[in-house]
Amino acid sequence: MTEIRLPTVIVNFKAYTEVDGLSALRMAEICSAVAEETGVSIAVCPPMAELGAVARSVDIPVLSQHVDSRKPGSATGWVTPSMVAASGAIGSLLNHSEHRMVLSDIKEAVYMCRDASLISVVCTDSVETSGAAAFYRPDFIAVEPPELIGGDISVTTASPEVVSNAVDAVRSVDKGVAVLCGAGVKTGEDVSAALELGASGVLLASGVVKHKDPREALLGLVSKI
Ligand code: G3P
Question: Which of 18, 144, 147, 216 is catalytic?
């Protein structure tokens, strides 16, 4: 699958033990089934070690959790855009709050993703960094206040102005860059609030991956789209 439709829900599996090994594939299959059942665009970011296995097995968009601005060759342990593309993934998160990159590497990685026909999703922590990242023209910017990540209060409740102002900041630079928001997104109401604030979707993790019933959780999350 090579396309992310808007609005979209991107589920980042992070490195939770719940998705170690084959469990990553089971989680991706749940997401895929919910996407098929509801018609909502759902993409997944499996743990790096399972990227290829998941990308080759499900029909929904699969993204890497990270990519480095490195060329193929002498790059032991780095994740190159070339290997992400070859894995069957269609794009990558960059600069996640748990895997920050320096500015010059973000820029280079976005450009290398574009050259490799990979979608780039640059994570940012504020309105200012969202506006700045838009100058690199990634496909998506996902604004996530770090202090709300993994918590139970959604960015759309705690800091709705961060979402709407990030949307404005990005649009003022490039209207072609879609804005997602994330951090603490747990319910369908959180998702609909994100869309009302101008976001094109959400990036989330614990609300699905750590939930005792990921399928029920995801059905609730997409219920108001
Ligand atoms: O990548 C998504 C993430 O950082 C947000 O995590 O658990 O607050 O949905 P969570």
Answer: 144
Assigned CATH class of 8-222: alpha beta
Report the 10 Å Cβ neighbour count for 178.
20
Best of 97, 149, 156, 221 for a ligand 1 pocket test (most atoms within 8 Å of beta carbon)? 149
Return the ligand 1 atom nearest residue 183 CA: 8
**Whole-model pTM?**
0.98
Sheet holding 91-94, edge to edge: 41-45, 8-12, 201-204, 178-182, 140-143, 119-124, 91-94, 63-64
Tell me, yes or no, if 96 is annotated catalytic: yes
Q: Can you give the pLDDT of all 225 residues of the chain as single tens digits?
A: 568 999 999 999 999 999 999 999 999 999 999 999 999 999 999 999 999 999 999 999 999 999 999 999 999 999 999 999 999 999 999 999 999 999 999 999 999 999 999 999 999 999 999 999 999 999 999 999 999 999 999 999 999 999 999 999 999 999 999 999 999 999 999 999 999 999 999 999 999 999 999 999 999 999 999
How many residues can be counted in the chain? 225
What's the gap in Å between 184 CA and the centre of ligand 1?
6
- What ranges do the domains of the chain cover? 8-222
